[in-house]
Amino acid sequence: MEWYFALGLLLGTVCAFMFLGLPVAFAFFAANILGTYLFINGDIGLLFMPIEFHNAIKFTLAPIALFLLMGEILLQTGVAFKAIGAIDRLISRVPGRLAVVSIVGGTVFSSLSGSTIANTAILGSVLLPDMIKRGYQPSIAMGPIMAVGGIAMLIPPSALAVLLASLAEQSVAQLLIAGIVPGMLMAVLFFAYVVGRCMLNPALAPAYVPDHGDMDGPLTISLHLGGRRIAGAVYNGRGRRMLNRVLPFFFYILPLLVIFVIVVGSIFFKIAAPTEAAALGCLAALAVCYFFRLFKTVIRISGIEGADFTWRDVARSLMETAKINTMILFIIAGSLVFSQALANSGATDGLLQQITQLDLTPIMVVIAMMAVLLFLGAFMDQVSMLLLTLPFFLLGSQSLQVAFNIDVIWLMVLMLITMEISLLTPPFGLLLYVMKGVAQFEVTLGQVVKSALPFIVIELFVLVLLIWVPEVATWLPKQIQ
Question: 320-352 in b/e burial notation, b at 16+ Cβ within 10 A?
Answer without folding.
Answer: bbeebbeebbbbbbbbbbbbbbbbbbbbbbbbb
